[in-house]
Amino acid sequence: MNKVLVLTAALALSAGCTKKKTEDKTPPTTGSGSAMMGSGSDTMAGSGSAAMAPPADPKVVERGAYLVKAGACLVCHTGMGPKGPDLDNPGAGGLEMKEKFGTWRSPNITPDKGTGIGNWTDDQIIAAFREGTRPDGTKLLPIMPYMNYNVLSDADAKAVVAFLRSLKPVERTVAKSEAKMDAPPVPKPTGAEPAADKKGEYMASVMLCNHCHWTPNKEGTAPAGMDKMFSGGLPMEFPPLGEGTLFSRNITSDNDTGIGKWTEEQIFTAIKTMTKPDGKMINGPMILLQGGWAQLTDDDLKAVAKFIKALPAVKNKVPDSTFKPHPMGPPPGAGSGGGSAAGGSGAPAGSGADPHAGHDMKGGDMKGSAAETGGKKE
Questions:
Q1: Mean pLDDT of 369-373
Q2: What pLDDT was estimated at residue 289?
């Protein structure tokens, strides 16, 4: 049984909760995380005064919840306890990851006014996740994928803010990150809605496809070129989850080293269920996203598949991964429900499929799926 998938998928499902104020002054025990999926540095408490606003339109909050699932925001901004993700306090931060650039810790993005972002204005929150800039003008670590979220339209950015404000405020101070990474410049967001024929590219950016699937330069500090944004080869290590190194796959249309032989339907199936055309399961950090991705609409996922299928071919043979997972227990209080199984990615442990594991959460229907994965490494 892929217990790691069930654990992380349950975290992805925890995209909402009640607004009852609770105190949690002690950060949870930190644990697993993706070196490419975290955010920023230090506690997010900042200057500024968030004006009292009327309750958000439930449909806007629901749209924000949808985008948060697509972008895996709460996967990184939720700490780990001794038995798994701190599902009672989504967004309260404290997830820690040590890597060659140092140690980063995800900040508290709940509406707590002292330790979270409760005192930030809507524009300050949007500037953080779309441009990587705090209210005081300092930059977030680029481990926070603001380069991807930069494409968000003004309406979608406001929806994300509305959802974040719907989270339960949690009083939790997160220690400052101790990582040093160059912050790449990003263009001023246009805020425009994507054209109909650009929906796949838009969603692929929000879903962080090129946040991992790029070819690094010799120093390993940046992409080898703009044409290498989807050609894979990025090495990633996940000490809390297992031993060894994962390399992101070349997902360009190259027939020999990429996925040029895959059809659009096969790419869609891989994104939604993590099942490759040969029937084997995808492995890698996508385990941290699939619980949310499986809840996205088929129209959006098919648009992403169409975009990926059309990517220009880049020949880049990616090394074989050597990652071997540690066994992990199921998340505390994880429920299960009926429905068809949806696959998951990441560290494989066994084969077969579990039924959906779901939770009804605030901010829209947050019922989701989790499934076991098996097979060989990607």
A1: 29
A2: 85
Q: Are 277 and 262 in contact (CB under 8 A)?
A: yes
- What's the pLDDT band for 285 if we cut at 50, 70, 90? confident
Distances from the Cα of 340 to the Cαs of 198, 266, 273, 348, 368, in angstroms?
Answer: 30, 18, 11, 20, 11
246 Cα distance to chain centroid: 17
Nearest to 62 by CA among 197, 160, 175: 160
245: its two tokens: 């190194």
Which amino acid, residue 66? Y
d(CA 376, CA 378) in angstroms, rounded, equals 6
User: What letter represents residue 96's amino acid?
Assistant: E
The C-alpha atoms of residue 103 and residue 90 are separated, in whole angstroms, by: 21
**95 burial via Cβ count (<10 Å: 0-12, 13-18, 19+):** buried
Is the pLDDT at 189 greater than 60, yes or no? yes
User: pTM of the full predicted structure?
Assistant: 0.77
Q: Which residues of 68-77 are buried (b: 16+ CB within 10 A; e: fewer)?
A: bbbbbbbbbb
Q: Which two tokens stand for residue 9?
A: 């998928």
Give the CA diameter of the chain: 56
Cβ atoms within 10 Å, residue 351: 13
| Tokens read off for 373 | 């994965």
Q: ∠ at Cα 96 (177, 208), nearest 5°?
A: 95
